[in-house]
Structures are given as structure tokens and as C-alpha cells.
Design goal:
single chain; alpha/beta; 3-stranded parallel sheet; 2 helices; flat; Response regulatory domain-containing protein; Sig_transdc_resp-reg_receiver
């Protein structure tokens, strides 16, 4: 099992608090965070970019 750092995180339908909080916490260069407004937008990204984590409607 190889270990690697998470590179891309997509968060769908985040609340404003989650959006602000995660933007402030995960400012490390190892992470790329993308916020999308709907699950449909995720399918556009996953066809072109490797995605490591998808969070949907986190509260």
C-alpha cells in the first residue's frame, strides 16, 4: 500500500460556514480544494482531474 498526500478535494453544496472554515484551515500547498454548488458539477471535474476526496453537503 503506497501512501500519498491528498491532492484534490471537492466539496459539494457546502454551507457558508464550512466554505470559510475549510478555506482557512486547509491552506497547505499539498491540497487543492474546489467548492461546487451541485453534484452535477462534480461529474464535469472527475472526467478530467483525479479527485481524492469528495464531500457532499457537509454540515
Amino acid at each position: 500500500m503506497s501512501s500519498r498526500l491528498i491532492k484534490k478535494i471537492i466539496i459539494a453544496e457546502p454551507s457558508e460556514i464550512i466554505r470559510e472554515g475549510l478555506s482557512n484551515i486547509l491552506t497547505n500547498r499539498e491540497y487543492e480544494i474546489m467548492f461546487v454548488n451541485s453534484l452535477d458539477e462534480i461529474s464535469n471535474y472527475k472526467n478530467y482531474y483525479p479527485i481524492d476526496v469528495i464531500l457532499v453537503n457537509p454540515v
